[in-house]
Design goal:
By secondary structure, the protein is an all-alpha fold. The protein is 51% helix and 0% strand. It is extended.
Length: 70
């Protein structure tokens, strides 16, 4: 299995066993990451990052202090 900073082998094995029912999946982690292509990322972005699903949050400096004072 590849190295993931802050995530030890025992953590990987436990997570794969818990969430996927197979701790052995940790052995093919590198191949699973290598299978991700730019085209796959673009397709997922098209499916999930749609204009109607977005949220726009505007932060204005000093607004919180002004609103809290009133």
């Amino acid at each position: 299995a590849g190295y993931i900073p802050g995530f030890g082998l025992a953590d990987l094995l436990a997570s794969f066993e818990l969430f996927e029912g197979d701790a052995n999946r940790a052995n093919d982690l590198d191949a699973r990451f290598a299978a991700v292509t730019p085209e796959l990322v673009a397709a997922v972005a098209r499916d999930y990052l749609k204009r109607e699903n977005r949220v726009i949050l505007e932060l204005h400096a000093g607004a919180a202090a002004t609103e809290a004072a009133s």
